[in-house]
Amino acid sequence: MAKKEFKLGLYAVVSGIVIAVVLAGLTVYAYTTRYTAFKPEKVAVAYVDGIVQNGDGYNAYKNTLLSENKKLKYGDFIRRGYMVCFKNDGEDVKQADFVGTGTEEEQKAIDAVYSKMYDYYVELVKEVGWDDYETFFMSYFSKLKEVRHEVYGDDYLDYEFMFGALEANVVTYGEKLTGAEDLLAADGKTVIREAFDGQYQELYGKDYHFTTSVTSCEELSGDELKAYIAEFKERIAPVASSGEAKAEVFKLEDGEKDKPKSDMVDAYAKLDCSERITGAAKVSLEVKLDDGKLVAIQDVYVVKIGRSWYIDNTNTDSTRLYLGK
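^ thats the sequence. predicted structure below, dont judge the formating
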């Protein structure tokens, strides 16, 4: 049996590997969802199943109206709406001396940040929830700024570091639920992380398997559709108009090269897509184990823009889909 090797910075090494896998998966995601979005039932299943299987409210938003605008991708919205408030990566901002050295000291620092932020991430999932993405993102990146200073002793913060921490926490949260196999080093033999069972194995058995299915799909029409669009506009209007005030709070100003204030205002304004909605539907779903035991039920509203359907995240309560303890 290969010798087990545990080193400082193991969390960082593991996180780096799983993030690479996640990013590769997003390429597949972009291809498959191109077809998923054409059917209201399919986009509803993709949304619910993504949360149930891995507790992943972060990537679930790729099925919602947050990713509807083709000129403003989901990641760009996060950068412009939240990360920019805490970004601090100018040429005059000094980083800790060990940054970029690849030394044990740097690995240990990354490990500490990811670990501290994971504890906070779990707290946010429980107390805030992903349905309130506004509070979630603002709270997370504000805390990351504090933890970066605490661990690194500097005030540097760029997009790569912010996404790296968040996505590592998302992956870890999912693995805590589902369990994971042995993770091997590049030599294919050395075990750098042993396999472990997750909360789902404890709750539902070693060989649990979830199946998400649609029980009904009711499309709205006529006066019902008009009323729904009007209600959506009422819900989204306060958020869509909040960019200006938030930019002022964080003292964002446009420069010659970067335009953080305009970008933020524009990002929020684009959330109001009410004039382009041409359809809406209520989809009811259930999640069962192979033995037929019901573990979750969920209603979601989806809306149609162009040829594609999206989860209306302004009218969805996903709390019952987080099945972990």
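The mean pLDDT is 90.
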